[in-house]
Amino acid sequence: MKTLLTTLLLLGPAIPAAAHEFTVGDLYVDHPMIEEAPPNAPVLGGYLSIANRGGSDDRLVAIESAAARKVELHRSSVTDGIARMQQITDGLAVPAGTTVELGDGNHAMFLDPDRRYVAGDEIGATLVFENAGRVDVVFEVEKRSAESAASSHGDHAR
Amino acid sequence: MKKPASGLRTLRAVLWTLVAVAAAGTLYLTYGTGRQQAEAGEAFYAKPFSLVNQDGAAVSEASFLGKPSAWFYGFTHCPDVCPTALAEMSGILEALGPDAEKLQVVFVSVDPERDTPEVMKDYVDYFDARITGLTGNLDQVSAMAKDRYIFFEKVPVEGGDYTMEHQASIQLVTSDGRFFGTLATEEGIDVRLAKVRRLIDQG
């Protein structure tokens, strides 16, 4: 296992495509993904993580995509058995030295996608950061399987 | 020796009073603020309702009696809680194997303004063709949900859109319309599967 990890770590930087990571300044955006939704689904949920390896705080203020009428940042929660969703209007803080997830209760909501997207498709988008500026990323569309849903969704598919 | 004992007794009495006050407070918060809670054994799924299914056909409470059922209330403009719940119910149907025939899974839209039968059909078919999707007009859905202690509310969001707050748990119902229990989102899939199996066993 350790050998495998070492191998992966060594290979990692050589094949950035496999890591599916995007960088802007000191921000590392990892694995933007969208869960495949039913045909004609009016919304798609997008997830990713952002590591701020720099010394100053930043903030994800918007996501833009030509593939949707609008992309909003949302916080969703289930408290006392009630599911609630709130729009995050002041952006998502990415403090220095931390990794923040869109996932884990937060998500990007792609409203009214321009067509049906299925597993294997890619959706281009631009993340807008307060300080680091703009970075183009690609959300990979992945299958939503009952199994992955059942196993509490891995890392950031919530 | 007597004094400390009675002191303890007094303390105990005070503590129990506090417990009672806390319990009363909890009861008030739970029941007093308009949110009701279901009681096991109550036959509120036998109360009349009239909605349409994903094929546009009229359905009533009678359409779902005679077989145990699992009811989820949500909406299609919901990027994670609802599709996750439906994907998980589809997983439970898979795990039940042939026993899946003994369970009806129903998804009721709490956003009937946007969720037409056509929208519901695409939506439920994607997760599992065995899931029934129900919608109707807002009054019909509201009355139906209220009778079944289901909370939902329309919440405006910036830019003129809106979202729905809604009950996230799934209600399990016996074949004669009695409330059996809930499946909560925070429970593991094994716990939920066990509850569903128990429901099927008891009919």
UniProtKB/TrEMBL annotation, chain A:
Signal peptide (from-to): 1-19
Protein's UniProt name: Copper chaperone PCu(A)C
Transmembrane annotation, as ranges: none
Pfam families, A to Z: PCuAC
Lineage: Bacteria, Pseudomonadati, Pseudomonadota, Alphaproteobacteria, Hyphomicrobiales
Keywords associated with the record: Signal
Record bears the keyword Signal: yes
